[in-house]
Amino acid sequence: MPTVLEDGPYSFVFFSSDKGEPPHIHVKRERRVVKVWLDPVQLAKNYGFPAHELTRIVRLVMKHEATLLEAWHEYFGA
Question: Of 23, 1, 10, nearest to 54 (Cα)?
Answer without folding.
Answer: 10
